[in-house]
TrEMBL record:
The keyword Kinase applies. Residues 168-229 form the ANTAR domain. SMART domains: ANTAR. This is GAF and ANTAR domain-containing protein. InterPro entries: ANTAR, CheY-like_superfamily, GAF, GAF-like_dom_sf, GAF_ANTAR, WH-like_DNA-bd_sf. Keywords: Kinase, Transcription, Transcription regulation, Transferase. It comes from the Bacteria.
Amino acid sequence: MSSPYIPPPDATWSDGLLSLLVVTETFEEFLHELTVATVAALPEGSMCGLTVVRDERAVTLSTSDALTLAVDQIQYRTGEGPCLDTLASGQVNHIADTSAEPRWRSFCTEAFAHGVRSCLALPLMAPGGQVGGYNLYNTHPGAFKDVQARMGLYAGTAAGAVALSLRLADQSKLNADLRATLASRSVIDQAVGIVMAQQRCPAEDAFALLSRASQNRNLKVHDLAAEIVATVGGQAPGPGPFQPHE
C-alpha cells in the first residue's frame, strides 16, 4: 500500500490524520504510515518513531525504519536518552550533535556509533494527558534546529490521532477477549448439559462434578469440558449459538 498523502501541519493536518485512520486497515499500519508521513515533512536523513508506556515500560509502537528501532532500543537498554526523559517529564528534548551532547552520554555514544547525529523528542499530549512520545533522529548534526516549532504542531495534532488509535486497539482487544470468554463459557455449558443428562442432576451439581474432575486431572475446566463435548459429539466443539464463526 502506498503511503496516503498527509498535508502540512495546518488546519487540514488533523483532517489528514483522521483520513489516515479510515484508510489504513490495522492499528499497526496507521502508526507506521504516520511515522512515514512525519519523515516526509522533516529534513533529509530523518527518521521517526512512536513510543508509549505500557506496564511501566517504554515500548516502541512503530517506526519509519529499522535504524530508529535500534536507536530506541539503546535508550531502553541504557535506561537513558531524550525519549525516555520526555516520557517522564513531558518536556521537549533536543540534541544538536550526539558527539558533543553532555547529557545521556551512554546513549549518545552508541547513537553516534549508529550514525545518528541529532535527535528531537516531543511529547504526544492528548486532552486526557500524555499518550507517548515522538522520537526523531537524523544522520546530520543540527538537523532539527529550525523545525522544532513546526514539529511541535505535528506532535500536538498527532497525539489526538494516536490516542484514538490506542483506544480503538484496546477496544478491539477487549472485544477479542470477550469473544474468547463467551466461547469458553459456551463449551462449559455444553459439558454441564452432558453431565446433567448422564448423572441426572441439576446444573449446579453437574458443574461441581466438572470442577472436581478438572482438579483431579490437573486440567482447566474449559479443556475438560471441550474433551467431554468432543467425546460425546464425535468432534471438537464449535462456537456457541451466540458466537459467530471467524
